Amino acid sequence: PRPLTARHRSWPWCRECTGIALDLGSARTRAWTSGRRLILDVPTVTFPGTGARYPIQRGAIVDTPATARMLDRLLGHRLPRPGRPLLVLTTPALGGVPYRTEARTAVDVLRPRTVLTVPAARAVATAADADLTRPLLVVDLGAHLTEVTLLTDGAVTDARRAALGTSDLDSLTPPERITDTVVAMLTAMLDQDRTSQTLDALRRGALLAGGGALRPDITRGLAGRLHAPVHPVPSPHTAAVRGAARLLHAAHAHPSTATHP
Questions:
Q1: What's the pTM value of the predicted model, to 2 decimals?
Q2: For domain 130-232, is the CATH number 3.30.420.40?
Q3: Which residues contact 132 (CB under 8 A, 6 or more apart)?
Q4: Are strands 56-57 and 60-61 parallel, antiparallel or unpaired?
Q5: Which residues contact 133 (CB under 8 A, 6 or more apart)?
């Protein structure tokens, strides 16, 4: 990339530039904005006047206008006018075009000049400084969703998910249910992989992210059932947005985004 000009310096000194890293979760929405050190972390909920509304459920955006209202309330007043932010958005590995379409519509309320999407697993790997030249398994143990993703050269080559998360655990649904679910997804990936990539990644050890990675009963259970190491990333519940923030810094410095409205 070309050297940064005086008008396009690194954050927080680049006053003309605004950036947002955003992770839209079913239970929590997390955001980082340029010029701030803290991550904004709020429940994914709106109150339109008729009670609580949960616009993102099990990894799907079910109410795009409500998602937009939530983002405007969370971030709208934090963005300078008339600047337009560069935005990096994490997406579920299996969200596909429908998720990206709804998410892009929702973030339009923030008037972004550019929206870059990144698989959440890639963002987690970036936050963990993982070596992406080798196959890597990322297990995201969320509140409402559990995802297992295989990254090869940093790209998603296989992914599985289940509508089960830590918020579902109770006296009738023990932590072993999540462990069993992850093992079943990985077993299916191994059975269908005609290469050695999934096995190589498993032997290397899976990265664990999401709030479930903070639970020793789940992490110990996974290590025992998989007969392989597991590596909870630091602050696993915010790993995706922190990785997105690092990718945002890289995008901010790239010539293709080094323009101002």
A1: 0.89
A2: yes
A3: 125, 151, 153, 154
A4: antiparallel
A5: 153
- Using an 8 Å Cβ cutoff, are 147 and 156 in contact? no
Q: Where are the domains of the chain?
A: 19-122+239-257, 130-232
**CA dihedral over 174, 92, 77, 20, signed as positive or negative:** positive
CATH 2.130.10.10 is the classification of domain 19-122+239-257 = no
Residue 30 token pair: 């997390």
Contact between 17 and 34 under an 8 Å Cβ cutoff? The reply is: yes
Q: Same CATH topology for 19-122+239-257 and 130-232? A: yes
**Alpha-carbon gap, residue 226 to 216, rounded angstroms:** 15
Q: For the segment 169-202, what is each residue's pLDDT rounded down to a tens digit?
A: 999 999 999 999 999 999 999 999 999 999 999 9
Neighbouring C-beta atoms of residue 170, cutoff 10 Å: 7
pLDDT score of 261: 41
Find all residues with CB under 8 Å of 196, minimum gap 6, and list them. Answer: none
Which helix H or strand E contains 10, and what residues bound it? none
Task: List the chain residues with pLDDT less than 70.
Answer: 1-17, 254-261
CA proximity to 122, closest of 157, 85, 146: 157
